[in-house]
Amino acid sequence: MRWTLIGALCVIALGGIALGQRERLPAECRQEIVQLCRGAGGGFRQCVRTALPKLSDPCRKAIGARDAAPIAGATEHAFGPDPKQRLDLVKPAGVSRAPVLLFVHGGGWSIGDKRHAAGDKSAWANENGWAFATANYRLVPQATVENQAADVASAIAWLRTNARREGLDPDRIVLMGHSAGAHLVALVGTDPQYLNAAGVPMNAIKGAVLLDGAGYDIAPQANSKLNPVKPMYEAAFGNDPKRQAELSPTLQAAAPNVDRWLILPVASRIDSRNQSNGLADALNRAGASAEVVAVPGENHGSLNKGLGETGDFATEQVDKFLAGAR
Fold first, then answer.
1. What is the mean pLDDT of residues 49-65?
2. Domain containing 158: what range?
3. What Pfam families does the annotation carry (predicted)?
4. Which of 22, 38, 178, 298 has its CA at 20 to 30 Å from residue 279's CA atom?
5. CB 28 within 8 A of CB 59
6. In 10 A of CB 21, how many CB atoms?
Protein backbone atom coordinates (compact mmCIF):
# COMPACT_ATOMS: atom_id res chain seq x y z
CA MET A 1 0.00 0.00 0.00
CA ARG A 2 2.79 2.43 0.90
CA TRP A 3 4.43 2.12 -2.53
CA THR A 4 1.10 2.65 -4.26
CA LEU A 5 0.76 5.85 -2.24
CA ILE A 6 4.25 6.96 -3.21
CA GLY A 7 3.35 6.36 -6.84
CA ALA A 8 0.20 8.45 -6.65
CA LEU A 9 2.00 11.34 -4.99
CA CYS A 10 4.88 11.27 -7.42
CA VAL A 11 2.51 11.39 -10.38
CA ILE A 12 1.26 14.72 -9.03
CA ALA A 13 4.62 16.17 -8.04
CA LEU A 14 7.03 14.82 -10.62
CA GLY A 15 5.61 15.49 -14.03
CA GLY A 16 3.51 12.34 -14.26
CA ILE A 17 6.42 9.93 -13.75
CA ALA A 18 4.63 7.02 -12.12
CA LEU A 19 6.16 4.75 -9.50
CA GLY A 20 3.30 2.31 -9.13
CA GLN A 21 3.45 -1.07 -7.51
CA ARG A 22 4.07 -2.83 -10.84
CA GLU A 23 7.08 -0.61 -11.52
CA ARG A 24 8.97 -0.98 -8.27
CA LEU A 25 12.12 0.99 -7.69
CA PRO A 26 15.41 -0.75 -6.84
CA ALA A 27 15.47 -1.90 -3.23
CA GLU A 28 18.27 0.52 -2.37
CA CYS A 29 16.21 3.47 -3.58
CA ARG A 30 13.07 2.34 -1.77
CA GLN A 31 15.07 2.00 1.43
CA GLU A 32 16.61 5.43 0.92
CA ILE A 33 13.15 7.03 0.65
CA VAL A 34 11.93 5.21 3.77
CA GLN A 35 14.99 6.27 5.77
CA LEU A 36 14.68 9.85 4.60
CA CYS A 37 10.96 10.12 5.29
CA ARG A 38 10.51 8.01 8.43
CA GLY A 39 9.48 10.38 11.19
CA ALA A 40 9.82 13.44 8.95
CA GLY A 41 8.05 16.62 9.99
CA GLY A 42 4.74 16.90 8.21
CA GLY A 43 4.43 13.14 7.86
CA PHE A 44 5.43 10.51 5.33
CA ARG A 45 3.12 11.76 2.56
CA GLN A 46 4.49 15.28 2.64
CA CYS A 47 8.08 14.02 2.69
CA VAL A 48 7.56 11.79 -0.35
CA ARG A 49 6.21 14.75 -2.30
CA THR A 50 9.30 16.83 -1.63
CA ALA A 51 12.18 14.40 -1.11
CA LEU A 52 13.66 14.38 -4.61
CA PRO A 53 16.40 16.99 -4.21
CA LYS A 54 17.63 15.15 -1.09
CA LEU A 55 17.89 11.73 -2.72
CA SER A 56 21.15 10.31 -4.03
CA ASP A 57 21.93 10.76 -7.69
CA PRO A 58 21.52 7.01 -8.49
CA CYS A 59 18.09 7.00 -6.85
CA ARG A 60 16.94 10.11 -8.69
CA LYS A 61 18.18 8.58 -11.93
CA ALA A 62 16.20 5.42 -11.23
CA ILE A 63 13.04 7.45 -10.62
CA GLY A 64 13.60 9.62 -13.68
CA ALA A 65 14.14 6.66 -15.97
CA ARG A 66 10.69 5.17 -15.39
CA ASP A 67 8.63 4.87 -18.57
CA ALA A 68 11.64 6.02 -20.62
CA ALA A 69 11.75 3.42 -23.36
CA PRO A 70 14.02 4.01 -26.38
CA ILE A 71 12.32 5.97 -29.17
CA ALA A 72 11.99 4.10 -32.44
CA GLY A 73 14.28 5.48 -35.12
CA ALA A 74 15.93 8.06 -32.86
CA THR A 75 19.58 9.05 -32.97
CA GLU A 76 21.26 10.54 -29.90
CA HIS A 77 23.47 13.62 -30.12
CA ALA A 78 25.59 15.57 -27.61
CA PHE A 79 25.09 19.32 -27.41
CA GLY A 80 27.55 19.79 -24.54
CA PRO A 81 30.25 17.95 -22.55
CA ASP A 82 28.07 16.86 -19.62
CA PRO A 83 26.45 13.39 -19.93
CA LYS A 84 23.05 15.01 -19.42
CA GLN A 85 23.52 17.35 -22.37
CA ARG A 86 22.07 14.96 -24.91
CA LEU A 87 19.10 15.01 -27.27
CA ASP A 88 17.28 12.35 -29.28
CA LEU A 89 16.24 13.23 -32.83
CA VAL A 90 13.68 11.47 -35.03
CA LYS A 91 13.15 12.75 -38.58
CA PRO A 92 10.17 12.29 -40.89
CA ALA A 93 10.77 10.29 -44.04
CA GLY A 94 10.99 12.18 -47.30
CA VAL A 95 11.15 15.72 -45.83
CA SER A 96 14.29 17.62 -46.80
CA ARG A 97 13.89 20.73 -44.58
CA ALA A 98 11.68 19.53 -41.75
CA PRO A 99 10.46 21.95 -39.10
CA VAL A 100 11.48 20.85 -35.61
CA LEU A 101 9.43 20.24 -32.47
CA LEU A 102 11.78 20.21 -29.45
CA PHE A 103 10.33 18.67 -26.26
CA VAL A 104 11.62 19.44 -22.75
CA HIS A 105 10.67 16.90 -20.05
CA GLY A 106 9.38 17.60 -16.55
CA GLY A 107 10.35 16.20 -13.17
CA GLY A 108 10.46 19.00 -10.62
CA TRP A 109 13.78 20.31 -12.00
CA SER A 110 15.49 17.41 -10.21
CA ILE A 111 14.66 14.21 -12.11
CA GLY A 112 13.39 13.19 -15.55
CA ASP A 113 14.52 11.77 -18.84
CA LYS A 114 14.20 12.88 -22.46
CA ARG A 115 12.56 9.60 -23.41
CA HIS A 116 9.74 9.77 -20.86
CA ALA A 117 6.38 9.59 -22.69
CA ALA A 118 8.13 10.57 -25.93
CA GLY A 119 7.34 7.64 -28.23
CA ASP A 120 3.82 8.70 -29.22
CA LYS A 121 4.93 12.30 -29.57
CA SER A 122 7.71 11.44 -32.00
CA ALA A 123 5.49 9.25 -34.20
CA TRP A 124 2.73 11.89 -34.24
CA ALA A 125 5.17 14.69 -35.08
CA ASN A 126 6.78 12.71 -37.90
CA GLU A 127 3.40 11.77 -39.37
CA ASN A 128 2.68 15.49 -39.61
CA GLY A 129 5.98 16.29 -41.31
CA TRP A 130 7.83 17.52 -38.22
CA ALA A 131 11.17 16.33 -36.92
CA PHE A 132 10.95 15.53 -33.21
CA ALA A 133 13.75 16.20 -30.75
CA THR A 134 13.68 15.64 -26.99
CA ALA A 135 16.44 16.91 -24.74
CA ASN A 136 17.88 16.08 -21.36
CA TYR A 137 19.37 18.82 -19.20
CA ARG A 138 21.46 19.01 -16.06
CA LEU A 139 19.46 18.55 -12.86
CA VAL A 140 19.07 20.20 -9.46
CA PRO A 141 20.91 20.07 -7.07
CA GLN A 142 24.05 19.42 -9.14
CA ALA A 143 23.00 22.20 -11.53
CA THR A 144 20.96 25.39 -11.25
CA VAL A 145 17.77 26.36 -13.05
CA GLU A 146 19.89 28.92 -14.90
CA ASN A 147 22.07 26.02 -16.14
CA GLN A 148 18.96 24.15 -17.23
CA ALA A 149 17.64 27.07 -19.28
CA ALA A 150 21.09 27.42 -20.85
CA ASP A 151 20.97 23.70 -21.73
CA VAL A 152 17.63 24.12 -23.50
CA ALA A 153 19.08 27.01 -25.50
CA SER A 154 22.19 24.94 -26.31
CA ALA A 155 20.01 22.10 -27.60
CA ILE A 156 18.27 24.58 -29.90
CA ALA A 157 21.64 25.88 -31.08
CA TRP A 158 22.78 22.33 -31.89
CA LEU A 159 19.67 21.73 -34.00
CA ARG A 160 20.28 24.93 -35.95
CA THR A 161 24.04 24.35 -36.38
CA ASN A 162 23.45 20.82 -37.70
CA ALA A 163 20.27 21.58 -39.62
CA ARG A 164 21.72 21.15 -43.11
CA ARG A 165 23.37 17.83 -42.26
CA GLU A 166 20.24 16.50 -40.54
CA GLY A 167 17.71 17.81 -43.08
CA LEU A 168 16.11 20.33 -40.70
CA ASP A 169 14.85 23.87 -41.13
CA PRO A 170 16.93 25.99 -38.71
CA ASP A 171 14.37 28.79 -38.62
CA ARG A 172 11.20 26.76 -37.96
CA ILE A 173 11.53 25.44 -34.43
CA VAL A 174 8.68 25.07 -31.94
CA LEU A 175 9.38 24.39 -28.27
CA MET A 176 7.17 22.19 -26.09
CA GLY A 177 7.60 21.46 -22.39
CA HIS A 178 5.71 19.66 -19.66
CA SER A 179 5.60 20.67 -15.97
CA ALA A 180 9.10 21.88 -15.01
CA GLY A 181 9.93 21.59 -18.71
CA ALA A 182 7.09 24.00 -19.45
CA HIS A 183 8.68 26.47 -17.05
CA LEU A 184 12.07 26.12 -18.78
CA VAL A 185 10.55 26.57 -22.24
CA ALA A 186 8.68 29.64 -20.99
CA LEU A 187 11.85 31.07 -19.44
CA VAL A 188 13.88 30.59 -22.62
CA GLY A 189 11.03 32.07 -24.65
CA THR A 190 10.74 35.22 -22.51
CA ASP A 191 14.24 36.02 -21.22
CA PRO A 192 16.43 36.60 -24.29
CA GLN A 193 19.73 36.16 -22.44
CA TYR A 194 19.62 32.37 -22.88
CA LEU A 195 19.07 32.34 -26.64
CA ASN A 196 21.50 35.24 -27.08
CA ALA A 197 24.24 33.35 -25.24
CA ALA A 198 23.65 30.31 -27.46
CA GLY A 199 23.68 32.39 -30.64
CA VAL A 200 20.04 31.67 -31.48
CA PRO A 201 17.86 34.48 -32.86
CA MET A 202 14.48 34.77 -31.14
CA ASN A 203 12.67 34.71 -34.49
CA ALA A 204 13.96 31.18 -35.19
CA ILE A 205 11.49 30.00 -32.52
CA LYS A 206 8.08 29.95 -34.19
CA GLY A 207 6.09 29.00 -31.14
CA ALA A 208 6.00 27.57 -27.63
CA VAL A 209 3.58 24.96 -26.24
CA LEU A 210 3.34 24.65 -22.46
CA LEU A 211 1.78 21.53 -20.91
CA ASP A 212 0.41 22.04 -17.39
CA GLY A 213 3.12 24.20 -15.88
CA ALA A 214 2.40 25.83 -12.53
CA GLY A 215 5.64 27.74 -12.00
CA TYR A 216 5.60 30.73 -14.33
CA ASP A 217 5.57 33.18 -11.40
CA ILE A 218 7.82 31.52 -8.84
CA ALA A 219 7.34 33.49 -5.61
CA PRO A 220 3.67 32.55 -4.98
CA GLN A 221 4.52 28.86 -5.40
CA ALA A 222 7.84 28.85 -3.56
CA ASN A 223 6.55 30.86 -0.62
CA SER A 224 3.10 29.36 -0.14
CA LYS A 225 2.72 27.14 2.91
CA LEU A 226 -0.20 25.48 1.13
CA ASN A 227 1.93 24.32 -1.80
CA PRO A 228 2.54 20.58 -1.21
CA VAL A 229 5.79 20.71 -3.23
CA LYS A 230 7.10 23.94 -1.67
CA PRO A 231 10.47 22.35 -0.72
CA MET A 232 10.94 21.32 -4.36
CA TYR A 233 10.55 24.95 -5.42
CA GLU A 234 12.90 26.05 -2.65
CA ALA A 235 15.54 23.56 -3.80
CA ALA A 236 15.29 24.83 -7.38
CA PHE A 237 14.81 28.57 -6.84
CA GLY A 238 16.03 29.34 -3.34
CA ASN A 239 14.57 32.06 -1.14
CA ASP A 240 16.02 35.20 -2.74
CA PRO A 241 13.11 37.26 -4.14
CA LYS A 242 15.35 38.79 -6.82
CA ARG A 243 16.41 35.40 -8.16
CA GLN A 244 12.85 34.08 -7.99
CA ALA A 245 11.72 37.04 -10.09
CA GLU A 246 14.55 36.60 -12.60
CA LEU A 247 13.50 32.98 -13.11
CA SER A 248 9.79 33.77 -13.45
CA PRO A 249 8.68 33.87 -17.11
CA THR A 250 5.63 35.97 -16.23
CA LEU A 251 7.92 38.66 -14.81
CA GLN A 252 10.30 38.43 -17.79
CA ALA A 253 7.58 38.81 -20.43
CA ALA A 254 8.45 42.32 -21.60
CA ALA A 255 9.32 42.21 -25.31
CA PRO A 256 11.13 40.59 -27.00
CA ASN A 257 9.47 37.20 -26.61
CA VAL A 258 8.65 34.21 -28.78
CA ASP A 259 5.73 35.45 -30.88
CA ARG A 260 3.16 32.63 -30.50
CA TRP A 261 2.15 30.62 -27.42
CA LEU A 262 -0.28 27.80 -26.68
CA ILE A 263 -0.68 27.19 -22.95
CA LEU A 264 -2.52 24.02 -21.90
CA PRO A 265 -3.22 23.69 -18.17
CA VAL A 266 -5.24 20.80 -16.77
CA ALA A 267 -8.72 22.18 -16.15
CA SER A 268 -8.95 20.74 -12.63
CA ARG A 269 -5.67 22.29 -11.39
CA ILE A 270 -6.40 25.76 -10.08
CA ASP A 271 -2.74 26.75 -9.61
CA SER A 272 -1.84 25.68 -13.13
CA ARG A 273 -4.80 27.56 -14.61
CA ASN A 274 -4.05 30.71 -12.62
CA GLN A 275 -0.36 30.65 -13.47
CA SER A 276 -1.13 29.99 -17.14
CA ASN A 277 -3.56 32.90 -17.34
CA GLY A 278 -1.08 35.21 -15.63
CA LEU A 279 1.65 34.33 -18.11
CA ALA A 280 -0.68 34.69 -21.10
CA ASP A 281 -1.85 38.09 -19.91
CA ALA A 282 1.73 39.31 -19.55
CA LEU A 283 2.70 37.99 -22.99
CA ASN A 284 -0.33 39.51 -24.70
CA ARG A 285 0.32 42.88 -23.05
CA ALA A 286 3.86 42.75 -24.44
CA GLY A 287 2.63 42.14 -28.01
CA ALA A 288 2.92 38.36 -28.31
CA SER A 289 -0.04 36.09 -29.09
CA ALA A 290 -0.79 33.71 -26.21
CA GLU A 291 -3.84 31.47 -25.87
CA VAL A 292 -4.81 29.42 -22.82
CA VAL A 293 -6.92 26.32 -23.37
CA ALA A 294 -7.82 24.39 -20.21
CA VAL A 295 -7.74 20.64 -20.91
CA PRO A 296 -10.74 18.73 -19.50
CA GLY A 297 -10.73 15.18 -18.21
CA GLU A 298 -6.97 14.86 -17.72
CA ASN A 299 -4.52 14.95 -14.85
CA HIS A 300 -0.96 16.25 -14.74
CA GLY A 301 0.55 13.00 -15.99
CA SER A 302 -2.12 11.85 -18.44
CA LEU A 303 -2.02 15.15 -20.34
CA ASN A 304 1.63 14.58 -21.12
CA LYS A 305 1.39 10.85 -21.77
CA GLY A 306 -1.60 11.24 -24.11
CA LEU A 307 -0.08 13.96 -26.26
CA GLY A 308 0.22 12.51 -29.75
CA GLU A 309 -2.63 10.01 -29.47
CA THR A 310 -5.43 10.04 -32.06
CA GLY A 311 -8.55 11.76 -30.77
CA ASP A 312 -6.74 13.39 -27.85
CA PHE A 313 -8.13 16.86 -27.04
CA ALA A 314 -4.78 18.47 -26.26
CA THR A 315 -3.21 16.96 -29.37
CA GLU A 316 -5.93 18.51 -31.51
CA GLN A 317 -5.14 21.92 -30.00
CA VAL A 318 -1.44 21.48 -30.72
CA ASP A 319 -2.16 20.33 -34.27
CA LYS A 320 -3.97 23.61 -34.96
CA PHE A 321 -1.14 25.58 -33.37
CA LEU A 322 1.60 23.82 -35.36
CA ALA A 323 -0.31 24.38 -38.60
CA GLY A 324 0.26 28.09 -38.07
CA ALA A 325 3.98 27.65 -37.54
CA ARG A 326 4.79 26.04 -40.89
1. 68
2. 69-323
3. BD-FAE
4. 298
5. yes
6. 12
